Amino acid sequence: MRIAIVVLCMFLAGGPTLASESRCFGTPAKGRLENGARLPLRGENFRSYSMLGWGMGRTYVHSRVSDVLLDAFGEAARATPGVEFVYAETGWRRGGPFYPHRTHQNGLSVDIMVPVLRDGKPALLPLLATNRFGYDIEFDDRGQYGDFTIDFDALGQLLYALHRAAIRHGVPIERVIFEVPLQSHLFRAQRGAYLRRNLVFSKRQAWVRHDEHIHIDFRIPCR
């Protein structure tokens, strides 16, 4: 039954991705996308936040952004053995309004759940329909949520890998949105000094908390 639901959702989402490169229009806050690329459901060290969300078509990005993400996950696998990263919502295959997000409209926005530790070991957050597949989880300003602690070292390694992959593919990172009080912990972790020098982080409180996930906007010339 579960597989049948996912197959139906895939059909409703628009079927397989075409082979040609995507084209973006407008901005992340008001735009659209042609020939979006669906991120894989899972890989060696990463997975989607929700099989249902993936099946419904909520994990499409610009094809060049997909290249950056997959490259970065591959590099992070070598630096963070045992850590499984979870990417969250990205956008529709054709872009456009993407409720409840205010952006994610032209294939250049990506949410990634924070990696966590439990009893000092890599773990996965409980991503359930009852907590909006993780989006309703709230960490305190120390990076704690119950028995879970944000793995700032692993998060720093992933952002480091993303920045390096973005350079290789010519797709700069425009900005990273992460809860401001948590940034100080990230900057003290592995790669923290590098991230402070090379990435632009949000300085103000976003309209919703970004503690259980980071939001990344990439920069590609759009029509």
Structure overview:
The protein has 223 residues and is of the alpha+beta class. The chain has one domain (2-218): Muramoyl-pentapeptide Carboxypeptidase, domain 2 (2-Layer Sandwich). Helix content is 30%, strand content 21%. It contains six helices and 13 strands. Strands 4-6-7-13-12 form a five-stranded mixed beta sheet. A hairpin with a 2-residue loop joins β8 and β9 (121-123). α3 packs across α4 (152-169) and α4 (152-169) packs across α6 (192-198). The longest helix has 18 residues, at 152-169. It is globular, with a radius of gyration of 16 Å. It starts with a helix and ends in a 5-residue tail after the last strand.
Keywords:
223 residues; Muramoyl-pentapeptide Carboxypeptidase, domain 2; five-stranded mixed sheet; 13 strands; disordered N terminus
**Distance linking N and C termini:** 42 Å
Top CATH class: Alpha Beta
Total number of domains? 1
- State Rg: 16 Å
Order of helices and strands: HEEEEHEHEEEEEEHEHHE
Strand order of the largest sheet: 4-6-7-13-12
**Strand pairing plus helix content: what structural class?**
alpha+beta
Main beta sheet? 5 strands, mixed
- Average pLDDT value? 92
Work out the strand percent.
15-25%
Second rung of CATH, namely the architecture: 2-Layer Sandwich
CATH topology: Muramoyl-pentapeptide Carboxypeptidase, domain 2
Determine the number of helices (DSSP H or I, runs of at least 4 residues): 6
Determine the fraction of residues in helical runs and give it as a percent range: 25-40%
Silhouette = globular
Number of strands: 13
Low-confidence stretches: 3-18
